[in-house]
Design brief:
Its cofactor is Mg(2+). Pfam families: Mur_ligase (PF01225), Mur_ligase_C (PF02875), Mur_ligase_M (PF08245). Pathway: Cell wall biogenesis; peptidoglycan biosynthesis. Belongs to the MurCDEF family. MurE subfamily. With about 500 residues, this protein is α/β, with parallel strands linked by helices. The chain has 3 domains: about 5-100, 3-Layer(aba) Sandwich (Udp-n-acetylmuramoylalanyl-d-glutamate--2,6- Diaminopimelate Ligase, Chain: A, domain 1), CATH 3.40.1390.10; about 100-330, UDP-N-acetylmuramoyl-L-alanine:D-glutamate ligase (3-Layer(aba) Sandwich); about 340-490, Mur ligase, C-terminal domain (Protein-Tyrosine Phosphatase, Chain A, Alpha-Beta Complex). The chain contains 16 helices and 26 strands. A hairpin with a 4-residue loop joins strand 16 and strand 17 (about 280-285). Helix 4 packs across helix 11 (about 320-330). The longest helix has 16 residues, at about 300-315. It starts with a strand and ends with a helix.
């Protein structure tokens, strides 16, 4: 599938120094993954500068260097250099060029927000499938192409990997793709040059401030998906001030917008909701028409996800009857308020696993469990290492909305697990007798189950679908769902 330099950089403001007809056979941004006749993009990163790896890229076979400043190398006489203002943005646009703009050939739905992205992508995928479309998903849990599931390194892949995915989906005749769009991806231009049919916003709560530094910068990164950079139809939850601000901006731009939420002014809003342990019964007001149905997901925050997915289905042009049919048989989302099954269920204890790893998500998950529980609610949680430390005491405070909490290790990465816990517990002083610390995650889960009586519920929060634990440079096998089932069974013997 090669492209000449001239073809690859069409529409990109650049200066080509050398042979504009040089053939490019691939795009690379890591010098150790360069293959013969690749174009190597010298990305200026947060820690390293790709310009320092230009010679290594040439040694691996690169014939084209894309740079923000000319590099002078001893062994670069037959190398074409392309000088651009921003190598990240150029890489994204060039990747779209290289794969012949695959996002134009699919209906792409981009979903952003702090919480709810994964669940909403799964719901949209299911709606599109029921509507007769061939579907794909890109997000935290992995990549779906039709019925095939693959793991992914990032919620939103780097631009060459993303465009390659789109091309694979196009070539496999996928019609509709639901994609999680992270704030990092937007800030790092991973989605630049991508065409969206619909963009959707769920909510904004504290997360990723280790990267964005301020809440305003975090919001503005998300808001780019609703700007002129990404024209599309919009679905916006207006339950927080950030959704309302996005609505204001999109209204000024005269975008097609469907609003969702518990806010009385939302175009899609609940008339009544009944929460059960296995499902939810809802009556939705959809632009003045009421739809009554049950769906097999639990919790208030899933009402928000259901409404968002309903709005996206409408923006994709599906009949309301098709959307209701699909939502009535919605799939279980991996690691999202997922009930643990096992022989130990005869204890009368309900155990759930959820990905909640922000204060808002943890509070909402606990509230959802409490609404389903006759007895007390016990939460097991921790915080990730090498991430925003300012949210740790806030997570501790959020955990006190449960009747009891067991503070444990999450993915400590390169931090001491006890140091992370020491950052959490200052937020829990208001409930000093309602929590305990157990740094070993398996023992913490076992302890929570041991504390539970018949009619109680245990929520294991923070890791959800993950089947690993990151400790130092090691990736240890650890699946909350599996471990909780094992400990539940052990407790019943």
């Amino acid at each position: 599938m090669g492209k000449t330099c001239k073809e690859l950089f069409a529409g990109i403001d650049c200066t080509i120094i050398g042979n504009e007809n040089e053939m490019v056979e691939g795009i690379a941004y890591r010098s150790d993954r360069v293959e013969s006749h690749d174009a190597f993009f010298c990305i200026v990163g947060l820690v390293t500068d790709g310009h320092s790896f230009a010679q290594d890229a040439i040694d691996h076979g690169a014939k084209v260097l894309v740079v923000e400043r000319k590099v002078y190398l001893a062994d670069a006489t037959d190398i074409t250099e392309v000088v651009v203002k921003d190598t990240r943005k150029a890489m994204a646009q060039a990747s779209a060029n290289f794969y012949d703009h695959p996002s134009k050939d699919i209906e792409l739905v981009g979903i952003t927000g702090t919480n709810g992205k994964t669940t909403t992508t799964y719901l949209v995928e299911h709606i599109a499938h029921v509507a007769g479309r061939r579907t794909g998903v890109i997000g935290t849990v992995g990549v779906h192409i039709g019925k095939k599931l693959e793991k992914s390194e990032h919620t939103t892949p780097e631009s060459p990997d993303l465009q390659r995915l789109f091309a694979r989906m196009r070539d496999e005749r996928v019609n509709v793709v639901a994609m999680e769009v992270s704030s990092h991806a937007l800030d790092l231009e991973r989605t630049w040059g991508t065409k969206f049919a619909v963009t959707a916003f769920s909510n904004l709560t504290q997360d990723h401030l280790d990267y964005h530094k301020t809440f305003e910068a975090y919001f503005e990164a998300k808001a780019r998906l609703f700007s002129r950079d990404y024209p599309a139809k919009r679905v916006i939850c207006i339950d927080d001030k950030y959704g309302k601000e996005l609505l204001r901006r999109c209204s000024v731009a005269e975008d097609s917008v469907i609003t969702t939420g518990f806010d009385p002014s939302a175009q899609i809003k609940p008339v009544s909701v009944t929460y059960e342990t296995t499902h939810t019964s809802i009556v939705l007001d959809v632009r003045g028409t009421k739809y009554s149905f049950d769906y097999p997901l639990v919790g208030k925050f899933n009402v928000e996800n259901i409404m968002c997915a309903f709005g996206i289905g409408m923006q994709l042009g599906y009949p309301a009857s098709t959307i209701v049919e699909a939502l009535s048989e919605a799939p279980q989302i991996p690691g999202r308020l997922q009930r643990v099954n096992g022989a130990g269920e005869n204890l009368g204890i309900s155990v759930y696993v959820d990905y909640a790893h922000t204060p808002d998500a943890l509070e909402k998950a606990i509230a959802s469990i409490k609404a389903l529980t006759k007895g007390k609610t016990i939460v097991v949680f921790g915080c990730g290492g090498d991430r925003d430390s300012s949210k740790r005491p806030i997570m501790g405070r959020a955990a006190l909305s449960a009747d009891f909490a067991v503070v444990t290790s999450d993915n400590p990465r390169h931090e001491d697990p006890m140091a992370i816990i020491d950052d959490i517990v200052p937020g829990m002083t208001a409930g000093a007798d309602r929590y305990e610390v157990e740094p070993d995650r398996r023992r913490a889960i076992a302890r929570a189950i041991a504390l539970a009586d018949e009619g109680d519920s245990v929520l294991v929060a923070g890791k959800g679908h993950e089947d690993y634990q990151l400790v130092g440079d090691s990736v240890l096998s650890f699946d909350d769902l599996v471990v909780a089932a094992e400990e539940l069974d052990r407790a019943s013997k």
